[in-house]
Amino acid sequence: MSIYLGKNSKVIVQGITGREGLYHANRMRTYGTNVVGGVTPGKGGQKADEFAVFDTVHGARASTGANTSVIFVPPPFAADAILESADAGIELIICITEGIPVHDMLKVMSVVPKSTRVIGPNCPGIITPGEALAGIMPGHVFSQGRVGLISRSGTLTYEIVDQLTRAGIGQSTCVGIGGDPIIGTVFVDCLHAFERDEKTDAVVLVGEIGGTDEEDAAALIRDKHVTKPVVAFIGGRSAPEGKRMGHAGAIVSGGGGTAKAKIAAFQAVNVPVADSPADIPELVSRSGRQPARV
Question: Of 121, 152, 182, which marks where a domain is finished?
């Protein structure tokens, strides 16, 4: 298995009887993910397109051995859905839901145990190409290889991966960490994981304006905790100060979180920063360690 997800992952979908939950449960299964069921309170014992439905995550885990959950639950209830999965012992929780109140996520992250990995919210999920997909990513643009990718932006992820695949550069694992101000897994966490991953030779980091996660990642590289080559791209360079640009976390205020500051932080630690997604394959190829091509 790669850093978080693999063929041995047993996935449940919280909110599986909703339109989005069921649609993406089928897409995940078609890709090859082992989707073992879903959860919708009050609908336990039913079937949703041949997926077993359970009333609770505890019941789903006890019956299926699930270790991964993908959450398609409306914002007012999504924080409780994360907490329910964590309480049931789910190891990897991927929250797709957008619009969860910040105070709800502050509460969630203050009580979720360290043994539980939360990805998101407001994220596209994770894919280990050729093995498993958990989330809403378009699996057909990904290819197997040895370049890891971490991104705050779903659409930029797909564009950049398409560029890599067309250039013959495959991916080991791609993680969409989400664009909200409070998320469970940040760049630093993924960089540590990719550093330990024997299947990853280089990393592409896709950041955007707002917050300090990119600067924290640059500091980790500066302190030699990451030795594998990293290539970066920062979205939102033309965003005016004080304007929210799509993601709740993508807002520049008080002079902090600018694209200029993030680019400078990476350049200061010799991480090449692409001017355009189209430049990334060439920068990866010149990054100091040639990743295996597909």
Answer: 121
* One domain, residues 206 and 257: yes
User: pLDDT tier at 2 (50, 70, 90 boundaries)?
Assistant: confident
273: three-class secondary structure by DSSP: strand
Residues 150 and 281 in one domain: yes
pLDDT in tens, 175-225: 999 989 999 999 999 999 999 999 999 999 999 998 899 999 999 999 999
126 in a domain, yes or no? no
Buried b (16+ CB within 10 A) or exposed e, 211-235: bebbbebbebbeeeebebbbbbbbb
In a domain, 129, yes or no: no
Tokens standing for 193? Answer: 């994981």
Angle between helices 213-222 and 259-268 (to 10 degrees): 10
Q: Identify any residues that bridge with 37 across adjacent strands, giving them in sequence order.
A: 12
> What is the torsion angle, in degrees rounded to the nearest 10, for the CA atoms of residue 240, residue 262, residue 246 and residue 110?
-130
Residue 70 sits in the same domain as residue 16 = yes
Which range marks the domain in which residue 104 is found? 1-121
pLDDT tens digits, residue range 136-186?
Answer: 999 999 999 999 999 999 899 999 999 999 999 999 999 999 989 999 999
Q: Which of 36, 45, 33 is nearest to 14 (CA)?
A: 36
Active site residue 247: yes
Based on the structure, what is the number of domains in the chain?
2
Q: Which residue has the tokens 């990866």?
A: 284
The reply to whether omega before 101 is within 30° of 0 (cis) is: no
The model's pTM: 0.92
Q: Is residue 127 part of a domain?
A: no
Q: Which of 24, 103, 140, 247 is catalytic?
A: 247
> Do 115 and 178 belong together in one domain?
no
